[in-house]
Amino acid sequence: MSSQTAELHTERRNLGERARRAVDRGPRPYFRGRLHASAAWFFGGSSTALTAVAAAHSGSFFLTLTTAVYAMCLVGMLTVSALYHRVPWRSESTIQHWRRADHAMIAIFIVATYGPITAAAFGAQWFVRRGGIDALGGFMGWGGSWLLLVGWLAAAGAVVLNLFWITHPRWLAVTVYMVLGWMAVFGVAAFYHALGLAPSLLILLGGVVYSLGAIVYGKKWPNPSERWFGFHELFHAATILAAGLHHIAIWLVVLD
User: Has keyword Transcription regulation (predicted)?
Assistant: First the structure.
């Protein structure tokens, strides 16, 4: 037996031993993590192009910066999710670390999505009060900076929650993500007047799809196939669809 053949057999044996040492997380649907892994590649390319176009076309430092942050958080969220769900981790502590990162990235990504939309809607007037009528019929005077500030503070709170209490009830996670996602309602009039009909509708529709996915995650229903495509895969599919709708909206905003 040649030395190369011996090395190959040794490597295969080591891989087999590592696989056997992986923590058994129970039966998991075939598509668990695969959707987000594929989406990470797609959005990685599209987000890189989006950031480049924002830098070359928009002429706005704030829009370019927030677009870059959004792009990194989008791809980061999908990548962390794919790694958490797909890799056969070898210890429970490692799994819990990745679970914390997975949940924390959701909150960070939600608020990062506000960035380019808010930058386009409010421009450089970050600390100027902008009047408008919100969805509840009251007077809204938030500037873009305050919406982002509150959003990032809330996201930081969600990150702390997931880092130190990852076993929190599922309904609490759903509530936190829903509140983060629908904070934009306080600036709905300003967003609509600044961005126009098409981006606003895409943003609204994306929010609805995100919410439906969160409800599926919270209720663990419907659960089409435990072998192939379960409730968690529906949640991931809804996340990708909603992210795609918002991604198109941000492309429209950047190109406007």
Answer: no
The pLDDT of residue 134 is 38
Structural domains in the chain (count):
1
pLDDT at position 136 is 32
Q: Which of 114, 209, 204, 190 is nearest to 152 (CA)?
A: 114
Q: Which domain holds residue 154?
A: 3-255
Q: Which residues contact 9 (CB under 8 A, 6 or more apart)?
A: none
Which amino acids are annotated as binding site for Zn(2+), given as ranges?
85, 232, 236
Could you say which residues of the chain have pLDDT below 50?
15, 19, 126-141
Residue-wise pLDDT for 132-141, tens only, equals 433 333 333 4
Q: Residues annotated in the binding site, as ranges?
A: 85, 232, 236
- Tell me how far apart the terminal alpha carbons of the chain are, to the nearest angstrom: 66
pLDDT tens digits, residue range 173-210?
999 999 999 988 877 888 888 899 999 999 999 999 99
- The answer to whether the CB of 43 falls within 8 A of the CB of 112 is no
**CATH number of the CATH domain containing 149:** 1.20.1070
CA proximity to 240, closest of 200, 213, 202: 213
